[in-house]
Amino acid sequence: MKHRDAAALASLALLFTATPSLAKRVICISPASPAGSHDYYLESAEGYYRTHPEAGDAIDDSGNLTACLNQLADGDKFILIAHGTEEGEFHWNGSIYRGFGPAPDQFHPPAGIANIQVTICVQACHSNEQPSAPLDKPLKQNIEDAFKEGSTATGWTGEVEFPCKMSVEYDEAFDPDHGPTNPASQAEIDAKLAAARDCLQNDQTWADGAWDAQQTDAQAVIDNCAGAAGARITFTWCPAQQVQPGSGRGADIIIRFGCGVCALPGCGYGTYILLGPSTVPTVSHWGLATLALLTLIGGTLVIRRRTAVSIA
Fold first, then answer.
1. CA-CA distance, 101 to 233, in Å (whole number)?
2. CA 285, CA 282: separation in Å to the nearest integer?
3. Cβ(183)–Cβ(177) under 8 Å?
4. Closest Cα partner for 184 from 223, 152, 239, 230?
5. Between the CA of residue 295 and those of 5, 235, 262, 289, 300, what are the distances in Å?
6. Which residues contact 85 (CB under 8 A, 6 or more apart)?
7. Is residue 9 very low, low, confident or very high in pLDDT (cuts 50, 70, 90)?
8. CA separation for the pair 222, 206 (Å, rounded)
9. pLDDT digits (tens, 9 = 90+) for 156-168
10. How far apart are CA 138 and CA 153, in angstroms?
11. Nearest one of 296, 207, 193, 311 to 252, comparing CA atoms
12. Are strands 160-170 and 269-274 parallel, antiparallel or unpaired?
């Protein structure tokens, strides 16, 4: 009996200690080139993945692609973020590679990746296009072939951008000229928000910093903008998409930055969408408090003022 009990306990211990590791995302982001330069595409991509984390994420922007690849395990998702060209190449830390492999013009990955099966997402322009040389493969195929059979890769046709939606709203808590006893009129609010939008377009120094400083820098532009008191800005980083044509979408303003030093075809973009005025009424902090109070006493609140002027 004691032996059976001991065996049962040992089985239970094995059950709880042998839990398989969960698959994770390994995200390898190329540094800007030359070192220290500003690259809107790469930084916008980092902004998206940093603000939309998943459990176990490994995000590596060190520039050491070998070290980043060594973090992969069987079943993981490998995301490569770099600039791509129409000839099946990607830019990494100042060098250009025709995918992964043993050839002199290819990146030589660690040997261990040939033994792991992963899902691959190549976030680079033209990464799913056939190069002009008939024997060449699309970039995503050249990378997929370096991994264990059964791995799958996706890429892009055309150019890629990581958009960032910029929403400007009014908050009377930040307006020294107005408050609950002296609320701004709707016309005054609209004028403040229009002034803020104009200043953001005319002074784009807010885009010069790293992705995680841009919202703060944009707010500083608004704070120094005449007639924009109470305007507040929020950045929302969005997933990759094919580059959309045009400079505007209805009332939205598209501010698009190229990839800076990289001038070859296929460069990705950092795109900022300054959302236009919304027609959906909302209420201020004071209005919400009043609404809650009236709800408690069974009253009715008629909303006459709008503070938010943009929606995604």
1. 45
2. 10
3. no
4. 230
5. 62, 33, 58, 10, 7
6. 91, 96, 125, 126, 264, 265, 266
7. very low
8. 10
9. 998 888 999 999 9
10. 11
11. 311
12. parallel
